[in-house]
Amino acid sequence: MMLAVDPSKKISFNRCIGDGDLVIVYERHDNMKAVKVCENSVLQNRFGVFKHSDWIGKPFGSKVLSNKGGFVYLLAPTPELWTLVLSHRTQILYIADISFVIMYLEIVPGCLVLESGTGSGSLTTSLARAVAPTGHVYTFDFHEQRAVSAREDFERTGLSSLVTVGVRDIQGEGFPDDFCGKADSVFLDLPQPWLAIPSAGKMLKQDGILCSFSPCIEQVQRSCETLRANFTDVRTFEVLLRMYEVREGKMENSQAEESVPTGSHRCKRRQRSSEGGNGMEISSSPTVMARPSSESRGHTGYLTFARLIRLS
Ligand SMILES: C[S@@+](CC[C@H](N)C(=O)[O-])C[C@H]1O[C@@H](n2cnc3c(N)ncnc32)[C@H](O)[C@@H]1O
Questions:
Q1: Are both 117 and 196 inside the same structural domain?
Q2: 144 alpha carbon to ligand 1 midpoint, in Å?
């Protein structure tokens, strides 16, 4: 379970794996999958056969062995990892944008958050954890099957008590009137967000914040025009993330003199001669190379934030 909330609304951190739990089987950062633990099942991969019964009772984070001595790690299904393993039914938001959204929307436990569209539920999963244990996320998508799949995912990840998925055309009908003036924040990931902005404004509490995610700048321009009527502090961001590979390797002198790619850094490990004890640096000492990873994600979209002005 991603987040166990007991009946008294306390979050419990049960760090041991039980029968029926969801675990993230980690081979490498780019090779993980979600598996439901079932006492009589096995997991088979290139490292051999792993019996689920060996996993039960072990703490999350454990390294477990196959029949051939191969290993994987069993990680807790956090929203961060879920975002990397979920089935993509749509484009999704990734960690860099998600963390920025949660911070800038000032989402804390107890908040009521409205979202549309639900899509693959990548953002919703993090919103749910951020509002737990007493808040709630109401998320809407007009695509019936996507809503059904999202509900199934929230059941699997143990978040269903924190999220309600509704089927509704938010651009056409707006959010339901029941939420008028009750939302702490509203998040839109819609093709024509400007159509939903007037309704979002009605749903927000005084001082509430809206965020709209759009891949194209033309969508942003149109949304900002609409926002100016009832919102203040309208700001747009693009979150660009650069990952680095940091590796240690031995380099010959001639190699060390070669130029390194832009953005790369290297630093020679200071190593003293063990034999002579003369304090000289060894020329072929291990070098720590750091260079931008080719996996870095570029443009995903623009995030526009705005705060409601309530004219009293
Ligand atoms: C890009 S996806 C959202 C992805 C989501 N933010 C995530 O992180 O997984 C956009 C979703 O908006 C939904 N959508 C498009 N127009 C809509 C509308 N008028 N009302 C409600 N949902 C809509 C689509 O069905 C789609 O699932």
A1: yes
A2: 11
